[in-house]
Amino acid sequence: MDRVTIPDVLTLEEASGYLQLSIETVASLALKGSIPGRKIENDWRFLKSAIDDWLRAKNSSSILLSQAGMLADDDYLPQLRESIYQARKRPEIDDNSEI
Questions:
Q1: Would you say residue 32 lies in a domain?
Q2: Are 48 and 8 a contacting pair, CB within 8 Å?
C-alpha cells in the first residue's frame, strides 16, 4: 500500500485537499485571517502544523496564544495582539464563540 506524504508547508491547493474544502473556501478563510496562512507575493502557504492546531482549537484566540507561547513573557505581546486584531478589523474575543 502506498503512503501519501504531506509536506510541512502546503500550497493553497494542498491545504484545500488536506482540509477537504474547496480552494475558494480555503482562500476566503485565509484572506479573512480565519485560517493560519501567509500570502507570499501571489501565492498562499500554510504550515501543516498550524492548520492542525487550528483544527484542534476552539477559537482563534487560543491558536494565537499557543503559537505565541514563546513570547508569553514578552512585554510587547499585548501590543502585538492588539495590532493583529486591529489589522483584521475585528475584536480579539468573539462574543459568539464557545469557551
A1: yes
A2: yes
pLDDT digits (tens, 9 = 90+) for 11-59: 999 999 999 999 999 999 999 988 999 999 999 999 999 999 888 876 6
Query: Do 65 and 80 share a domain, yes or no?
Result: yes
Cα gap 9→98, rounded to integer Å:
30
The verdict on 33 and 70 lying in the same domain is no
- C-alpha dist (Å) from residue 59 to 31, 63, 64, 81: 17, 7, 9, 15
pTM surpassing 0.85?
A: no
User: What's the rounded Cα separation, in Å, for the pair 39 and 30?
Assistant: 9
Q: Are the CB atoms for 59 and 97 separated by under 8 Å?
A: yes
Q: Give yes or no: residues 49 and 2 share one domain.
A: yes
The answer as to whether 96 is a domain residue is no
Does the structure show a pLDDT above 70 at 72? Answer: no
**Count of structural domains, the chain:** 2
